[in-house]
Amino acid sequence: MTNNLILVVDDEPEIRSLLVRFLGKKGFTVHSAGTLSEGRNMIKEFNPSLVFLDVNLPDGNGLNELKQLNSADQRAKVIMMSAFDHNEVKLAAIQSGALDFLSKPFNIARLDQVIQSQLINLSNPNNEHGKDLSN
């Protein structure tokens, strides 16, 4: 990853805190936002390499935001998250350009697996999308 910056956009403070601590221990600089509006501003300001984006946020839908990010030619790659573990949501996320999908609550081993796989994907510019490893 050329830029060690990761952004976490989730309305649950516990999820934001977990991700900030975990990713910080892995050596990343991590910013967090509780709404889409805050997340948009942080993407413009910090230009993160990776964004963890919740599907359901108080001010909008993360899947719609993912589509906006892709159409705006942003370089940030996105991992979608949701407490609603529906195959339709996972499929929509991956088809909309998400690198991966995390079902909440997630365990640390699963989170570490996603991070490791995405480090490989982000360092390989010819690989457009990651895999959904959430079986």
TrEMBL record:
<feature type="domain" description="Response regulatory">
    <location>
        <begin position="5"/>
        <end position="119"/>
    </location>
</feature>
<feature type="modified residue" description="4-aspartylphosphate">
    <location>
        <position position="54"/>
    </location>
</feature>
<dbReference type="InterPro" id="IPR011006">
    <property type="entry name" value="CheY-like_superfamily"/>
</dbReference>
<protein>
    <submittedName>
        <fullName>Response regulator</fullName>
    </submittedName>
</protein>
<dbReference type="Pfam" id="PF00072">
    <property type="entry name" value="Response_reg"/>
</dbReference>
<dbReference type="InterPro" id="IPR001789">
    <property type="entry name" value="Sig_transdc_resp-reg_receiver"/>
</dbReference>
<dbReference type="InterPro" id="IPR050595">
    <property type="entry name" value="Bact_response_regulator"/>
</dbReference>
<keyword id="KW-0597">Phosphoprotein</keyword>
